[in-house]
């Protein structure tokens, strides 16, 4: 029986590969935000699904994976219109997280993450606007990449906030994660990091294990452009301003025309962007641009960032609204810097006995995507002992 909390559409496969290539034999769970030819985009919402037309062709990323030999296992569930990071959906339920059954998968690429974690697909193809690849990877014990902004064409993908939307992917095997990157990413060469900069003292042990695997040094401290706890708070506020303004611009008319179609918390996030004027929007974009310039200057000299990929294990599946929001806000403080600055970030599992999955994330300079994927393979192959 098909688990409808994971899948909206499923087949054996749903669609075959269109050619042969490096992904021969692999299957893909496609987030229900992307066009799959012959099917509708449901966007995690039954009202949206009922109104959607049938897609006539695949999204660019879906088409590219099929042309490289991958088959489409199915269309996987997402948080409503992708504007959540918990992995819960009032209409379709919460997908299972086999690595921590009492906890959520995180979202909004919840369905693809669950499909991969459950062994139902080799690759989860999703999107990451504010952390929706990295957070699910972290709490499900997977690898996941948010690419450099604009590196992967987003044609055929339903927008949330176009200034930050990216196509990303998850896998349980770092070699698979990297092979997908060779298909979707443009060729690029990036400097291997001379050091990893860790702004979170509490994450130093995990960071040190990664640094040892990569043969690089580690330094604890805040990077330029972030600088302090208050600077991160300012960046998060600017990011929210731009994200919510763009999200309302993209979906406000539909929300107004379909009152009550969305869960209350999701609709509230969209509506928070309805009153943002052009001056406020522009000021927020300017702050992000200034901070980005500072941090990229340092990173291009061979410094990468390393920080937790989420604020901790996923929250309980039945967590009250306040607890869900606290987890969300804490996680966004960790994921938003890469999103706001358009930087590539790769989530890596760090297995620790008796602890639910909590991954770490490497953040590199623009164009370092393939180097990050090489780092994921190296960390995955590391013979360093697991910490007790």
Care to describe what's here?
With 388 residues, the chain is α/β, with parallel strands linked by helices. It has 11 helices and 11 strands. It has an 11-stranded mixed beta sheet, with helices on both faces. β7, α6 (204-214) and β8 form a beta-alpha-beta unit. The chain is globular, with a radius of gyration of 19 Å. The relative contact order is 0.15.
Topology:
Elements (H helix, E strand, L loop, with lengths): L6 E9 L11 E5 L14 H6 L8 H8 L3 E6 L33 H8 L5 E6 L5 H7 L2 E4 L19 E6 L2 H11 L10 E4 L5 H11 L2 E4 L8 H29 L6 H8 L6 H22 L3 E6 L12 H21 L3 E4 L11 E4 L5 H13 L7
Parallel strand pairs: 2-3, 2-4, 7-8, 7-9
Antiparallel strand pairs: 1-3, 4-6, 5-6, 5-10, 9-11, 10-11
Helix pairs in contact: 5-11, 7-8, 7-9, 7-10
Keywords:
single chain, 388 residues, alpha/beta, 11-stranded mixed sheet, 11 helices
Summarize the structure.
By secondary structure, the chain is an alpha/beta fold. Helices cover 37% and strands 15% of the residues. The longest helix has 29 residues, at 229-257.
Structural class: alpha/beta
**Helical content (DSSP H or I, runs of 4+):** 25-40%
Question: How much beta, percentage-wise?
Answer: 5-15%
- N/C terminus separation: 38 Å
Radius of gyration: 19 Å
Question: For the residues shown, what is the average pLDDT?
Answer: 95
Identify low-pLDDT runs: 383-388
Number of strands: 11
Silhouette: globular
What characterizes the major β-sheet? 11 strands, mixed
What's the total helix number? 11
Strand order of the largest sheet: 1-3-2-4-6-5-10-11-9-7-8
Order of helices and strands: EEHHEHEHEEHEHEHHHEHEEH
């Amino acid at each position: 029986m098909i688990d409808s909390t994971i899948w909206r559409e499923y087949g054996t496969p749903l669609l075959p590969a269109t050619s042969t290539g490096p992904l021969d034999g692999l299957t893909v769970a496609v987030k229900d935000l992307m066009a799959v030819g012959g099917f509708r985009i449901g966007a995690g919402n039954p009202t949206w699904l009922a109104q959607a037309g049938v897609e006539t062709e695949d999204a660019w990323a879906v088409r590219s994976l099929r042309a490289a030999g991958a088959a489409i296992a199915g269309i996987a569930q997402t948080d409503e219109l992708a504007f959540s990071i918990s992995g819960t959906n009032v209409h379709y339920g919460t997908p299972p997280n086999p690595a921590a059954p009492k906890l959520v998968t995180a979202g909004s690429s919840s369905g693809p993450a669950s499909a991969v974690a459950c062994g139902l697909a080799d690759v989860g193809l999703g999107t990451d606007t504010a952390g929706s690849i990295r957070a699910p990877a972290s709490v499900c014990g997977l690898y996941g990449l948010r690419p450099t902004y604009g590196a992967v064409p987003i044609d055929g993908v339903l927008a949330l906030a176009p200034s930050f939307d990216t196509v990303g992917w998850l896998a349980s095997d770092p070699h698979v994660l990297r092979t997908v990157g060779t298909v979707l990413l443009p060729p690029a060469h990036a400097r291997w990091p001379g050091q990893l900069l860790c702004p979170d003292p509490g994450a130093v042990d995990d960071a040190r294990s990664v640094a040892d695997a990569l043969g690089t040094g580690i330094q604890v401290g805040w990077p330029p452009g972030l600088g302090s706890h208050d600077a991160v708070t300012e960046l998060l506020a600017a990011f929210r301003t731009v994200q919510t303004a763009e999200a309302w611009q993209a979906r406000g008319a539909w929300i107004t025309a379909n009152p009550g179609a969305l869960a209350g918390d999701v609709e509230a996030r969209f509506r928070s962007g309805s009153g943002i004027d052009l001056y406020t929007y522009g000021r927020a974009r300017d702050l992000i641009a200034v901070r980005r310039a500072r941090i990229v200057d340092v990173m291009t000299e061979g410094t990468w960032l390393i920080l937790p990929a989420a604020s901790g294990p996923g929250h309980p599946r039945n967590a009250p609204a306040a607890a869900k929001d606290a987890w969300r806000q804490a996680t966004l403080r960790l994921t938003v810097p890469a999103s706001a600055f358009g930087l590539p970030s790769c989530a890596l599992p760090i297995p620790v006995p008796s602890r639910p999955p909590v991954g770490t994330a490497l953040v590199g300079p623009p164009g370092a995507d393939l180097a990050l994927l090489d780092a994921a393979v190296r960390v995955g192959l590391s013979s360093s002992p697991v910490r007790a």
